[in-house]
Prior knowledge:
By secondary structure, the chain is mainly beta. Helices cover 5% and strands 52% of the residues. It contains 1 helix and 19 strands. A hairpin with an 8-residue loop joins β5 and β6 (85-87). The chain is elongated and about 80 Å long.
Amino acid sequence: MRKRAIFAVLTAAAALGAFTVPAAYADETVGDIQITGVAVNGGKNIVVGTADTTVTVSVTATDPSGIWDADFHLWRGTDPNNPDSYITPDQDTTPADCVAANATTSTCSKTFTFEPDWWLTNADAGTWKVGVDVWAEDDSRTHRDAYTTTRLQRLSKMTANAGPEPVASGKTLTVTGKLTRANWDTGAYAGYTAQPVKLQFRKAGTSTYTTVKTVNTSSTGDLTTTVTASADGYWRWSFAGTTTTPAVSAAGDYVDVQ
């Protein structure tokens, strides 16, 4: 049975109370232990294409006796007892990698691998909660179901082509392109439809792009528009991104205006 199917079975079982995920107990702190920070993927969104993507989650904590170990869980939904999706670290049964800053404070980390061909679905894109457990040398401990959040996004790609090349000054230039993003349900990239995308121009010899107009993608993610050629330079499409899809800009396509 594929891992995606196994994952669905576990989630369904959790809903029936037959399977309890580790996040099921309430937030609790015993002793003097304190969490001072949690970082996911270096503070950046988690962006996954059609290949496996590994990210690091770390927690910095302090206790008078020193920090012994930590663990994490990422989940999506509103109820930790019945998450819509749930993932544990790659090193789920082994201690975290803890690096001591001093006798009382350490930063502990583990890695998570997101596998689009096994268990990710398009519905998983969006906000995920980050659960954390930390233990001190004197058995002090703390558990937080949702200490912070992170955003999981479907990798986007953009193309741009301007022509004809070269073109006479004052003549019509046609700029085309396509916005696609990873489809985790099919394992391929597909056009991102009905999205506003900026057409931008950078004059030769300069370093800044200026927005010329905004065009919406078609039902297949395609873009096309016309402009009047006036100067040598680079044309590109630029997408601002959404909560489920990161921003992306195409490489500039140079056009010689004669």
